[in-house]
Specification:
The chain is α+β, with helices and mostly antiparallel strands. It is 55% helix and 10% strand. The longest helix has 29 residues, at 117-145. The chain starts with 24 loop residues before the first helix and ends with a helix.
Length: 854
């Protein structure tokens, strides 16, 4: 559990860990409320204005709208210019009052908290007025020239406090860190665009304009044009952002259905559900018996009839549910989820002809087309296709972030279940329909039934107007007609959820077995990295040992020492080598410790240093003497400034602290502009393992200053040490915060009886020479490693990190790479490079080259 003790005495000696605690959610909320006076004033103002204008208990009356609301009629035709200001402080109905108050206290509150009260006042006022005034002018101008949307909304009168709130929120993103700047901008813009495309009323257009104004105003208030640029994000954050966009856009059809508007090219999904119910008996009595004899009116009523019923209503929401399901999978990095989202958006594109039919109907388009009508139609066509195409492009560009696959066995089972369910349901419906074919209307053929059987599994607004359009008259057939599609997609969704929770953990071992071997056999100070995603696990024939590896270009690269007892190492290495030989792979043992090198020499292999591990012995550790002076100074300074530490696992952290860690990490990634490295370097996902511990540095104000993660080192089932992995600090943290944090961790581990604290490996580093020792003669490989260290230093700072670790007076242990064939070194080098940088985008490659050549 997290520590819950008082902060350490500033006068306490420097060799005591300054334990502290994290602020509770209640404390955070209290501090938040005290710093948003303007937002509270706006919330109270909305209540007062709604009471005065009568919108507290019902929608605004016509007189209220004409005098206080913004729009073409009031603002321009009536020359009531004050309405661009009053419309943003008066809610239009009780629902908007409740939502406006909540938005003022939360969204506007966040904006005020980030950029200060006076800037929040300016942003709310300026963006609200600009959004409303410019939006109303565009409506007036568009109506004058006959533009479809402007003509359809020219009579609207709008009261909308959200315009100013949204504008202020977007403006405040220029004062946020990279993480929340991206999240707020992307999710807010996606939500607004979804409402514009699926609803299309005036208030949504005003909010979009206010958001754009806020985007520009925020950079102006911050005095930093760089805030307008897009910064790179981590793999995990990219997944979150893409998932959020897919989820937000998925709810569009629901918006269209609820609002039943005729103002947008995406509103077609509501047409089939807003008509008056159509009776089959009525249709039969007034229309012909065959499809060829049906009039246009009868065909329209028939299309509406085929979309009625509870089953058709549920089936119409299948695209929404599938996209929400895909969003969940995308957040988890699943490859299947990416393909599912692409498939749904392709279906939306393929069946978008219904959108154009609805457009013609809404605007009474006949054969007399003007040049303006054609141009307007092109705009609507682009709008209808832009959103799904944009999502497909987004999912294609970011595909490297969604590489987690399910086991082939699980995928085959998924296909079998889905295909089997479809065959059974389609077969049952077709057989029953064929037996009752005489009761279908209009008259139906067997070919018509085949097509209709396929249509039972497609949302009605996709194919409702596609021939043949038939309706069953028999009760049993009607039940199946309504239900088979719903049952099929329910089975599909359950099977897809199951599929996306299956993960390939390796050949011959599952995750639980691997951890059992780790706890029993140890695996060295770097052994816990075997549990990370991306590794495949080989287990010995006797199931008492394991090796973590990954195959790249025919090279099987292991990760650290074999997970086995010391006396079994020779046997395990030989067995794994034979396993690789059977698969025609070249085995390479990477980051192995010195005790294993004699085994490789006996095998006739070569080995070379790939870095130095820095190890601090925590038994009897004393931070005294001149060698510890810099560390002791940082520890004492932190104590004097009120810094405290918290030792916890990820699941024990409050949500607010999790958000702070995410923000610190994303800020670090955005500033680097370099591709993230993996393999032996963990990221945010690795922090969440329940066996990993976090050491946090918390400032006197309760804000997180820095975070480190520690991987357990096992022996005989017990934790005997910890290895550092993840290190991040906030931009405004105390100088020396990392020294403070690592020293505090060392003191804790000493108190808990741990034997070793590993500061992990320093790639391409060479340990200092002992006093009086002479440097060995340089070799071709040593010169190559020295060249790589110099070249990569500007981008990744390996040498700087190694010098930092030297402050802790560690013991040095060389970690090596052992390989059987020197001729394979070029291929091995490329494989290791891909292990650390599995997929580098063109932009990242350019940034890397630019950094290396500075």
């Amino acid at each position: 559990m997290t520590e819950n003790t008082a902060p350490a005495d500033p006068q306490a000696p420097g060799d005591v860990e300054p334990k502290g605690r994290l602020r509770t959610t209640g404390e955070l909320l209290g501090a938040f409320v005290r710093r948003i006076p303007f937002s509270i004033v706006v919330a109270v103002l909305l209540v007062v204005t709604s009471a005065v204008t009568g919108t507290m208990f019902g929608p605004a009356g016509q007189d209220t709208l004409l005098f206080w609301a913004a729009g073409v009629i009031s603002t321009f035709d009536g020359a009531q210019w004050w309405t661009v200001g009053t419309s943003v402080v008066i809610p239009q109905d009780p629902f908007q009052l409740v939502f406006g108050v909540l938005a003022a206290l939360t969204l506007l509150g966040v904006a005020e908290r980030r950029m200060g009260t006076w800037r929040a006042i300016v942003a709310f006022t300026v963006t609200g007025v600009i959004g409303t005034a410019l939006g109303a002018w565009l409506q007036w101008f568009g109506a004058e020239v006959g533009e479809w949307w402007a003509t359809g909304t020219s009579a609207d009168l709008t009261l909308d406090p959200l315009a100013g709130i949204v504008g202020a929120l977007i403006a405040s993103t220029s004062f946020m860190g990279a993480l929340w700047r991206r999240r707020v901008r992307l999710v807010t813009l996606a939500a607004i665009l979804t409402f514009v495309l699926y609803d299309g009323d005036s208030s949504n257009a005003y909010r979009l304009i206010a958001a754009v104004a806020g985007y520009l105003l925020g950079a102006l208030l911050a005095g930093d044009a760089s805030k307008l640029s897009v910064r790179r994000s981590s793999h995990a954050e990219t997944r979150t952002l893409v998932a959020a966009v897919v989820a937000v856009t998925a709810v569009g059809p629901v918006v269209a259905l609820v609002n039943a508007t005729e103002l947008t090219p995406f509103a077609f999904s509501s047409y089939l559900f807003t008509e008056q119910p159509v009776s089959l008996d009525d249709l039969v009595s007034r229309c012909g018996d065959t499809a060829s004899s049906l009039s246009a009116a009868c065909l329209g009523d028939l299309a509406v009839l085929t979309s009625q019923g509870f089953g058709m209503f549920l089936l119409s929401f299948v695209p929404v549910v599938l996209l929400l399901l895909a969003s969940w999978g995308l957040h988890r990095g699943r490859r299947f989820a990416r393909w599912l989202a692409i498939a749904v958006n392709l279906a939306i594109i393929l069946f978008a002809r219904t959108s154009l039919d609805a457009t013609f109907t809404a605007n009474d388009i006949d054969d007399d087309w003007s040049a303006f009508d054609i141009g307007e139609l092109l705009v609507w066509v682009v709008a209808a296709f832009a959103l799904p195409i944009g999502l497909i492009v987004l999912l294609t560009v970011t595909r490297r972030h969604f590489g987690i696959r399910s086991p082939r066995r699980a995928f085959r089972r998924f296909l079998a279940v889905v295909a089997g369910t479809f065959v059974v349901l389609a077969g049952v419906y077709f057989v029953v329909a064929l037996a009752t074919i005489d009761e279908f209307w209009p008259a139906t053929t067997q070919v018509d039934l085949v097509v209709d059987t396929l249509k039972r599994f497609v949302p009605p607004h996709f194919l409702a107007v596609v021939d043949p359009i038939v309706v069953p008259g028999h009760d049993l057939t009607s039940v199946l007609w309504q239900g088979v599609g719903v049952v099929f997609w329910l089975v599909f969704i359950v099977a897809a959820v199951w599929l996306m929770t299956r993960t390939e953990v390796g050949a011959g071992a599952d995750a639980a077995r691997l951890r059992e071997l780790l706890r029993r056999n140890g695996g060295g100070t770097l052994g816990f990295m075997a549990t990370w995603p991306g590794n495949v696990i080989w287990t010995s024939p006797t199931a008492d040992a394991a090796v973590a590896y990954r195959v790249i270009n025919g090279i099987a690269i292991t990760l650290s020492d074999p997970i086995c007892r010391d006396e079994d190492a020779d046997r395990v290495i030989r067995e794994f080598t034979a396993f690789c030989d059977t698969n025609s792979w070249v085995p390479v043992f990477y980051s192995v410790h010195p005790q294993y090198l004699p085994i490789f020499e006996e095998l006739g292999w070569q080995h070379m240093s790939v870095g130095e591990e820095t190890i601090v012995r925590t038994k009897g550790l004393e931070l005294t003497g001149k060698p510890w002076q810099k560390v002791r100074q940082a520890l004492n300074r932190g104590v004097k400034e009120g810094m405290t530490t918290v030792w916890a696992s990820w699941d024990e952290l409050p949500r607010a602290t999790v958000a702070e860690i995410n923000a610190i990490s994303e800020e670090w990634v955005a500033e680097k502009e370099m591709p993230e490295m993996g393999f032996t370097l963990g990221g945010m996902e690795e922090l969440k393992d329940p066996d990993v511990r976090l050491m946090l540095a918390v400032g006197p104000d309760g804000r997180l200053q820095a975070v480190t993660s520690w991987l357990p080192v096992y022996r005989d089932g017990a934790v005997i040490g910890w290895t550092i992995d993840f290190m991040r600090r906030a931009d405004d943290s105390m100088n020396g915060i990392m020294e403070f944090l690592i020293a505090s961790a060392a003191l804790r581990m000493k108190d808990e009886g741990a034997e070793v604290l590993s500061l992990s490996g320093a790639p391409l580093a060479t340990k200092p020479l002992a006093p009086g020792a002479e440097a060995p003669e340089p070799t071709v490989m040593s010169r190559l490693l020295e060249f790589l260290a110099r070249t990569l230093e500007p981008a990744y700072g390996f040498s700087s990190l190694f010098r930092f670790k030297a402050k802790f007076n560690p013991d040095y242990e060389t970690i090596s790479m052992a390989y059987p064939d020197p001729l394979a070194l070029p291929t091995i080098g490329l494989a290791i490079g891909r292990a650390y940088l599995p997929e580098v985008s063109p932009k990242e490659a350019v940034a890397l080259v630019r950094t290396l050549t500075k």
